[in-house]
Amino acid sequence: MTQMKRVGEAFGVQALNWAMIAGAAVLFLEVTLSATPRPVAHAPTSVEQVVVTAHADRLASN
Questions:
Q1: Mean pLDDT across the stretch 13-30?
Q2: DSSP label at residue 42
């Protein structure tokens, strides 16, 4: 009986290990995919255009 109990405990621990590994993998994928930057297509606003133009002018003058 103790041998069967040990086998049951071993399978229980192994199942818990696999569940933890699977949970960690899912969490890793969720964090990785949610942190992936998504490209945002939009026309530059007038403020952005002024800043970019001023920066380009400053680089050209140096």
A1: 91
A2: -
- Is 51 inside a domain boundary? no
User: What is the share, in percent, of the chain residues with pLDDT greater than 90?
Assistant: 19
In a domain, 27, yes or no: yes
Which of helix, strand or coil describes residue 50?
helix
44: in domain: no
Reference 44, options 57, 36, 35, 53; nearest CA is 53
Q: What is the pTM of this model?
A: 0.45
10 vs 3: CA distance, rounded Å:
11
Q: Distance between terminal CA atoms of the chain?
A: 85
CA 59 to chain CA centroid, nearest Å = 36
